[in-house]
Amino acid sequence: MKIRIVLLIITALIISNCLSAEKLDSLHVNRLFNRCVSIGAGYSNILDTYLSTQKYTGTDIRISRETMRLTKISSGNVSLQNFFQADLSYTHNPVDNNNAFAGMMNWDYGLHYQFRLSDKLKLLAGGQSDMNLGFVYNLHNSNNPASVRAYVNLDASGMAIWHFNLKKVPMVLRYQLNIPVVGVMFSPEMGQSYYEIFTLGNSDGVIHLTSLHNQPSVRQLLSLDLPLGSQELRVSYLADLQQSHINGIKTHTYSHVLMVGFVKSLYSLHRKDVNKLPAFLQVY
Amino acid sequence: MKRKIAYIILFFILPLFVGCVDEDSYDNTPAGNFEQLWKIMDEKYCFFEYKHVNWDSIHTVYSKLIIPNMSEDALFEVMGNMLSLLRDGHVNLSYNGNVSRYWSWYEDYPRNFDESIKDLYLGTDYRIAGGLDYKILTDNIGYIYYGDFSSTVSNSNIDRVLSYFSICNGIIIDVRNNGGGSLSNSTTLASHFTNKRVHTGYIRHKTGTGHNDFSNPLAIYVDPANGIRWQKKVIILTNRHCFSATNDFVNSMRCFPNVIQLGDKTGGGSGMPFTSELPNGWIVRFSASPYYDANMNQIEFGIEPDVYVELSTEDKLNGKDTLIEQARKLLKE
Questions:
Q1: Assigned domain for A6 exists
Q2: Model confidence pLDDT, tens digit, residues B13-41
Q3: Nearest to residue A137, comparing CAs of A128, A129, A147, A127?
Q4: Could you give the ipTM of this predicted complex?
């Protein structure tokens, strides 16, 4: 027991020594992470004229993981956002006699310049890579049962972040807008089967350059961070409106999702700092 | 700084100007469903020009038969009759109570096949490999019956069959009454009957809504299988009920020098079918992507045999299959 207490004191001293060496105001802010894992559910409206002329609507369940941190670029005025989400939809046609599944993975990774308008309010502007892979599967179809969604974009991205107090409770409101400006998308031609593309190997013309004219998509995120006990809760509304009109095939997936998650603020230590701890106290 | 902030705020109102990608929607009424069906076919069906079908005229005639309060059955009948004018076995309108179809491609012709007589040849001790039923007949001729291209047949299945037939002088592949299935099975089976890459046909697909909006023809080849490849004579037995993937199989096999097609013309069905949907949930299937033979000829209405043989009534009464007997004679020559 005594040994344990001694070890704890040693550990506390080492850590306090690390931290006291650099006071809080001199922490490397680029190593402070804001991370949130959220889950949510909402409504999805799916059209894919390769599969059906009808719009399928139903439930969307989704998980996301977002990390933001400042970088050293431009004297610390540039932040990095890493946002990954995956969703699964189960939808039905208007007369509810057929169903379709849809799934999508989306990874956004990019930088924003932060314009600090005041201590509480800032606007962010930047660009992101926007990678997407998914499918729509219609349960009634025969030779064209599924449609692959695969596209990569360069997005223009803007964000507004406002720190405020509501009845002395500190909160953070954030609105983000991403619009794909240029990209490439996979799409078969109107009557082209996947058999022709993948078995017979005719892939000519299935990769298309996209922009606002043929892929007018928008991804909007409104989130509110508020304390919940010792935790920080993030409640978000995501409007993920993805559209395309290529090769005479029209697609859209309109998702409106309410998400909830917990925010973690993390500090990334250098290896040399971690190595100051005795090996038997390190997690790995 | 102020200008940059103004740009960002302007950016935030951009979504207000993003247009919707949407499809023309039709009401779930008899007229709405009729118009949706007509439009799907008008934009996506691939044989209008080849079959000399005036789809606009058909709209004029049949739209007059649509009345607001007509029953579901009456609407189904009118639309099914309209689709039957396309003379295409790949065109169906279906819901959970009925399927409209055009089956005249075999119903209007002699069957030239009797399942019970075929069973006399196979007996009860025949072997089964994947979808293939096979047996060595008494005169040392290998006989394979493949009744459904939806039944998977693998390279190892075929290797086993051909190995078993190694002592035979020739084989008969009977695909009568095979209404089609998977093109992959067709190609896999055909690949065991050639030693070199053979050009067997072309495929095109619709690239736009116009009746003649097609892609450039893409050449289709059959590559030799890695396993056992049959070097002796082969006779394929066909009738009018050979459709779709079976039609494709016959087309491929005819490109090989040691293969003879015997029996009746195939039923055709060279348009790869797609599916779409009406506002009332009815499903429509239609030919979307046409296949051609190696000379770029249409095979939608079938492939003529090298040797035309009918199943005779006399043979039928004697429990004989005229086509199998004729094939055995040819293989012995």
A1: no
A2: 777 777 888 888 899 999 999 999 999 99
A3: A147
A4: 0.91
Q: Which of B218, B186, B185, B188 is nearest to B201 (CA)?
A: B218
CATH of B107-194+229-268+303-332, one of 3.90.226.10, 3.40.1190.10, 3.40.630.10, 3.40.190.120: 3.90.226.10
- Asked if A51's CB is within 8 angstroms of B21's CB, the reply is no
Say whether pLDDT at A21 is over 50. Answer: no
Domain enclosing residue A210, as ranges: 29-270
B18·A216 Cβ contact <8 A: yes
Cβ burial, residue B136 (10 Å; 0-12/13-18/19+): middle
Nearest to A129 by CA among A166, A79, A78, A178: A178
Q: How confident is the model at residue A5 (pLDDT cuts 50, 70, 90)?
A: low
Task: Tell me the chain A residues in contact with residue B25 when contact means C-beta distances shorter than 8 Å.
Answer: 55
Which residue does chain B place closest to A191, by CA atoms? B206
State pTM to two decimals. 0.89
Residues B306-317, mean pLDDT to the nearest whole number: 96
Q: Is A278 a member of any domain? A: no
The per-residue pLDDT for B60 is: 98
Q: Is residue A16 part of a domain?
A: no
Distance from CA of A55 to the nearest CA of B (A): 9
The set of residues, in sequence order, having a beta carbon less than 8 Å from that of A71 and lying 6+ positions away, is: A30, A78, A79, A80, A111
B277: β partners: B283
Mean pLDDT for chain A? 90
Say how many domains are in chain A: 1
Would you say residue A172 lies in a domain? yes
A&B contacts, CB < 8 Å? 152
Looking at the complex, report in whole angstroms how far the Cα of residue A71 sits from the nearest Cα belonging to chain B: 21
pLDDT at A13: 44
